[in-house]
Amino acid sequence: MRPTGIWFSSYAAEARVLETARARIWLGLLGAGLLGLPLVSGTWLLGEMTNLFITLIAVCGLFVTVGMAGQINIAQSAFVGVGAFTAAKLSGLGVPVWAVIPAAALASGVVSVLFALPAARVKGFYLALTTLAAQVMFPIVILALPMSWLGGLVGMPVAPPRLFGIGLGTPAGLYLLGLVLAALAVWTSYNLPRSRIGRAFRAVHDNDSAAGVMGIPVTRIKIAAFFVGALYAGVAGAILAYLLQFVTVSSFTLFASVWYLGMLIVGGLHSPLGPILGVIFVTLVQEGLHSAGNAILQSGSGLGGGAVFAASSVVLGLCILAALIFEPRGLAHLWTQTMTAFRLWPFPRN
Amino acid sequence: MAATGGAILEARALGLRFGAVEALKDVSVAIRPGDVHALIGPNGAGKSSLLNCLSGFYHPWTGAVLFEGRDISATRPPERARMGIGRTFQGIQTYPSMTARENILTGFHTQMTGGVFAGLFRPPGAVRQEEEFTARAEEIIDFLELEEDRHRIVGDMSYGLRKRVDLGRALALSPKVLVMDEPMAGMSPEEKGDIARFTLDIRDRWGIPVVLVEHDMDVVMDISDRVTVLEFGRIIAEGTPDEIRGDERVIAAYLGGETEAEEDAA
Predict the structure, then answer these.
(1) Into how many domains does chain A fold?
(2) Residue of B nearest to A67 (CA)
(3) Residue ranges making up the domain that contains A98
(4) Residue where a domain terminates, one of A252, A284, A319
(5) Smallest Cβ distance to B119: which of A10, A198, A214?
(6) Final residue of a domain: which of A252, A284, A309?
(7) Is the pLDDT of residue B122 over 90?
(8) Residue A286 near residue A302 (C-beta atoms within 8 A)
(9) Tens of pLDDT along B209-220?
(10) Scanning every residue of chain B, which has its alpha carbon at the shortest distance from the alpha carbon of A70?
(11) What is the mean pLDDT of chain B?
(12) Has residue A158 been placed in a domain?
């Protein structure tokens, strides 16, 4: 619910995400803080943040495909891979970064449509299997192509990004690239639900037979949902390629796709806030586990790295289970509930 | 054969079979502008089959469906929605995760423009269009008295309210004819009264003719201009409510008894 004392005089004002001057100021401060971070931060934190931005962009894409349109997709990591290989290939040809990123997005989008064409005819479990096929086929196809195309088993080097003559290959440059594109991803995923096509996605999710009778072309909308979700994945892949400086198929696993889905579920499937909260929460848990794992490894307890890796998967699984059991609408819903309770205090929230 | 003159939606000599069951046999109905036209009949009489032929879910084996004089028998439901045949559903078929207003806005899908790009980047044109259609959705919200509930999630609403949202979504299609499948089933008398009032207002204020299937005879007789009675897939009577009330075959069909004529013959 809204805080009291907020009134609108136009529908456009009502549709704004940031309703109050105070909210806009807070977001401005957050943006300034994030932009200024490279001035004060070390390389390690910048790298971590860049990774977080990349993950956030990929999960924003899943929010569109899975959260809004209800089309289960366990191939997001493969679509990230398509973006990464496209970026690697194009950067090798000397294409500038401002052209590489849209091209990577588009390449992922087009590949996703190939899989969405059959996927649009099946639902639920069968759809999950169809997207799983995309994930499994991705490395097979890359390895089967001639070495000179996409590097095959060896992988491909990525030329450092340059924008208007400025090298962005430094940790700070990559961080800023990630920040700007993550902001774009968040902004667009807040825009979609208030648009014609976004409502069509959600209508197809909620009741596809009724949507069809209401004149919404269900199959085309499902394909569009895959396409849009993969656009985000392509952008994420391009930044990841620049960050890794070398892309191989082994970076884009089914495991990563499941992590992306897990983050979305923990954060909340039904709100654009979900990807943000989910990615931050799961990344913090992962980092906490890594530190704890390192401490355990160094303490000489006899536990190997395999056990620590397994433990982090178990903890992610527990997070997803806990989210599904206790709060299926995720952290985003928890957040709105808390805000509502806070605004209604001292009256009870019903 | 029903008269063609001025009918907006017409079924002409429809025949439909499911295996050995003859769901519709030589059924002709003409929906005239300005009418609330009720289809009634006992269970299994073919009312829903007829309705589904009109809205494109079923394709009749014989005969034709005409809309504004054009044969539309081969078209599918989404095309018919675009042409201007709006429909509400039996039971609950709204979008439960969306608000009442968003549900109604989805009804404008075919009238709005803008695809992926407009959705992602919200250019000024898209914002203007959103504003324009939000205002139109608000007219419907105002008409259906949903002001208090416009931002509520439809999944949390009562049955009666959800049916109203369903109606609002159908009105958003700006239909030239509205097909309603049991709009009052399972409602309290107050809710039925509301829907009856809305139905008459849709006819009078919005100028949209209504075809409806309904079981509550009192309501049907009160609000209909024309009534078509079906039994075993055939039309057994058609006329004004007063004519239908007095029709022997209709009484027999509903009471399951024999008509006086049959009794006399026996």
Answers:
(1) 2
(2) B97
(3) 37-252
(4) A252
(5) A198
(6) A252
(7) yes
(8) no
(9) 999 999 888 899
(10) B97
(11) 90
(12) yes
Alpha carbon of B188: minimum distance to chain A alpha carbons (Å): 25
Q: Kindly determine whether residue A214 and residue B94, on different chains, have CB atoms separated by under 8 Å.
A: no
How many Å lie between the alpha carbon of A41 and the closest alpha carbon of chain B? 32
DSSP per-residue string spanning B228-266:
EEEETTEEEEEE-HHHHHT-HHHHHHHH----HHHHHH-
As a whole number, mean pLDDT of residues A97-125 equals: 91
Contacts for A219 with CB less than 8 Å, ≥ 6 apart:
A120, A121
Nearest alpha carbon to residue A168 among A157, A152, A179: A179
- Between B95, B120, B129, which is nearest A206 by CB? B95
**pLDDT per position as a tens digit, A211-244:** 988 889 999 999 999 999 999 999 999 999 999 9
Same domain, A88 and A222: yes
Interchain CB distance below 8 Å, A12 and B130:
yes
A234 and A271 together in one domain:
no
Enumerate the residues of chain A whose CB falls inside 8 A of the CB of residue B135.
11
How many whole angstroms separate alpha carbon A278 and alpha carbon A270? 12
- What one-character DSSP code corresponds to residue B99? B
Residues on chain A touching B109 (C-beta within 8 angstroms): 196, 199-200, 203, 214-216
**Do residues A142 and A263 both lie within one domain?**
no
* pLDDT of A83 above 90: yes
B118 contact A CB<8A? yes
Domain chopping of chain B, boundaries: 1-84+175-266, 96-174
Residue B174 contacts A, CB cutoff 8 Å: no
In this structure, the answer to whether residues A69 and A58 fall within a common structural domain is yes
Portion of chain B with pLDDT greater than 90, in percent: 75
Instruction: Give the range among A49-63, A264-278, B78-92 with minimum mean pLDDT.
Output: B78-92
Residues of A in contact with B81 (CB under 8 A): 213-215
Q: Please report residues of A whose CB lies closer than 8 A to that of B179.
A: none
Give yes or no: residues A233 and A125 share one domain: yes
Look at residue B211 and give its three-state secondary structure: strand
Give the residue ranges of DSSP H helices in chain B: 47-55, 77-83, 100-106, 116-121, 124-143, 159-172, 189-204, 217-223, 241-245, 248-255, 260-265
Return mean pLDDT, chain A.
Answer: 91
CB neighbours of B77 closer than 8 A, spacing ≥ 6? Answer: A212, A213, B55, B56, B57
- Whether the pLDDT of residue A168 is over 90: the answer is no
Domain covering B1-84+175-266 assigned CATH 3.30.70.980 in the classification: no
From A93-107, B23-37, B39-53, the region with the lowest mean pLDDT: B39-53
* Both structure tokens of B63: 């005969």
Specify the range with the lowest mean pLDDT, choosing from A34-43, A251-260, A295-304, B116-125: A295-304
For residue A252, the one-letter residue type is F
Residues of chain A with Cβ-Cβ distance to B128 below 8 Å are: 12
Average pLDDT over residues B128-133: 96
The answer to whether residues A204 and A298 belong to one domain is: no
Nearest CA in chain B to A188: B120
User: What φ, ψ does residue A72 adopt, rounded to 5°?
Assistant: -60, 135
Nearest to A10 among B115, B121, B131 (CB): B131
Cβ–Cβ below 8 Å for B116 and A228: yes
Q: Does B148 touch chain A (CB under 8 A)?
A: no
- Nearest-Cα distance to chain B for A340, in Å, is 15
d(CA A327, CA A324): 6
Same domain, A247 and A262: no
